[in-house]
Amino acid sequence: MDFFTAFDLKTVFIILHLIGLTFGAGGAWISDLLILKFLQLEVITEDKMKMIQFMTKLVIFGLVLLWITGLGFLGMYYFEAAEKLANPKIWAKVTIVIILTFNGVWLHKFVMPLLQQNIGKKLFDEISKNTKRLMITAGTISLVSWIFPIILGSSTALNFILPMYEILAYYFVALVLTFVVLTFIMNKLTKMELTQPA
Fold first, then answer.
1. Residue 131 sits in which domain range?
2. How confident is the model at residue 176 (pLDDT cuts 50, 70, 90)?
3. DSSP-based three-state secondary structure for 195
4. Is the pLDDT of residue 1 over 90?
5. Is 3 part of a structural domain of the chain?
């Protein structure tokens, strides 16, 4: 066996899947943290906007790879090992990636234009509390939803152990806790902003 014959279809899918997670999670986390900083701390500049747009392209690339390889895995399981399709962890992961995809579309359609419209300003000075809350919610979903597929994909001990609803329950608890922490941080930053001399 030489180097190239060792790469069967499943191995190629695994490699591409990991690349998708790397690009998607890395791009999403960096852009989410930058956007959350713009809510309170920093003026949005053209250069920072270009960086977020570049990171967004990495996220899209990562998501596309995740869908292609994920569907590829499901197809392989269906034809070669149908019993694996009964693993609740797989369907919990699919559900989270669907949520992640819808959240990504919302970020692209709502948040990116909002940032573009406010170049040269701080979002804190321009948006309502409800809009800020929606942006924190979207950031929360993005942060947590990229972590969970990594955890589920790497945790073979969870195979056929926990039902899908229990995995998703942990996921939603993580969402709530992350939202509370981010909201607390943003409120603290708001108070600091208001107490600073003009």
1. 8-195
2. very high
3. helix
4. no
5. no
Count of domains forming the chain: 1
Tell me if 115 sits within 8 A of 49, measured CB to CB. Answer: yes
The pLDDT of residue 69 is above 90: yes
**Which residue from 156, 38, 24 is spatially nearest to 101, judged by alpha carbons?**
24
pLDDT over 90 at 101, yes or no: yes
**Contacts with 155 (C-beta within 8 Å, 6 or more apart), sequence order:** 89
Q: Tokens 């409120």 appear where?
A: 187
Helix runs in the chain, H state only: 9-40, 46-80, 88-106, 112-117, 129-154, 164-195
Residue with tokens 């701390």: 41
The predicted model gives 120-129 an average pLDDT of 75
The whole-number pLDDT of residue 194 equals 52
Q: How far apart are CA 131 and CA 126, in angstroms?
A: 10
- Please state, rounded to an integer, the average pLDDT across all residues of the chain: 85
Asked if the structure places residue 117 within a domain, the reply is yes
With CA atoms as reference, report the closest residue to 164 among 99, 104, 96: 96
Burial of 34-57, coded b for 16+ CB within 10 Å and e otherwise, reads bbbebbbeeebeeebbeebeebbe
Query: Tokens for 184?
Result: 């607390």
Let me know: does 32 contact 3? Beta carbons within 8 Å.
no
